[in-house]
Amino acid sequence: MPRLVPAVVRAADILELFLGAETALSAAEITARLGLPRSTTHELLTTLVARRYLDRLSGEETTYRLGPKLLELGSRYQERLEFAAEADAVARSVAARCGETVHVAVLDGLDVVYISKIDSTHSVRLISEVGRRLPAHCTAVGKALLAGLPTEELAERLHGQRLTALTGRSITSRAALLSELDRVRADGVAHERGESNPDAGCVAAPVPDARGRWVAAMSISIPTSRHSEAAWRDWERLVREGAAELSARLGGRS
């Protein structure tokens, strides 16, 4: 088991005391409940107040209560829960219209992480799961998200990185990737045919937030046995519509 950092554990213990009924606690109460040395409690409280995880209240006895930083963190966590719920709802609607597997993913470094997946209704379907991570340059959702990065940020993420191949069709050249991303920006839709799975392809569209940043992407994934040019055009339309709906639900703009 990885070693835990004692100071971080003790700081977390202090914060978790406020999960009880008390809204404010004194340093003496915190010291007694956790069995900490007084000097350690003082140092931890001073640090937590400085970082706004706790507020110090003056009165007959100095007490502490939860600070605004925790509200900010809780709000961000709630946003993530709401985003996942909205992503599932829209992905389910798109999947019902096309009968294929629909994903929603976000970018983490040079990888994509899938946060939503609705399965195809066909007996032959793709095997994937929420939480799965893949190289962004090998996927349609990843290309859409990389294309949305500012030029300097994209260059920084790619600097010194090797583009590994998942199949014989994967992009491994930085120049080829940049050319592909230019096309994605121009078209507003990304494609991948056999680049992450030799037996499947995907079409994806970006999900803009309120400031127009491409913060997520939605894709339709299809086994190669069901590929046709007419079907690709339908999937492009559906994924654009789905991404726009998800963006609108999140207060963004398409």
List the helices and strands and how they pair.
Blueprint: H1 6-16, E1 25-26, H2 27-34, H3 38-50, E2 54-57, E3 63-66, H4 68-98, E4 101-108, E5 111-118, E6 133-135, H5 140-147, H6 151-158, H7 174-187, E7 190-193, E8 200-208, E9 214-223, H8 229-249
Antiparallel strand pairs: 1-3, 2-3, 4-5, 4-9, 5-6, 7-8, 8-9
Fold and architecture overview:
The protein starts with 5 loop residues before the first helix and ends in a 5-residue tail after the last helix. With 254 residues, the chain is an alpha+beta fold. The protein has a 6-stranded antiparallel sheet with strand order 6-5-4-9-8-7, sandwiched between helices. Strands 1-3-2 form a 3-stranded antiparallel sheet. The protein has helices at 6-16, 27-34, 38-50, 68-98, 140-147, 151-158, 174-187, 229-249; strands spanning 25-26, 54-57, 63-66, 101-108, 111-118, 133-135, 190-193, 200-208, 214-223. 30% of the residues are buried. The mean pLDDT is 89. Pfam families: HTH_IclR, IclR_C. InterPro entries: GAF-like_dom_sf, HTH_MetabolicPath_Reg, Tscrpt_reg_IclR_C, Tscrpt_reg_IclR_N, WH-like_DNA-bd_sf, WH_DNA-bd_sf. Residues 5-68 form the HTH iclR-type domain. Keywords: DNA-binding, Transcription, Transcription regulation.
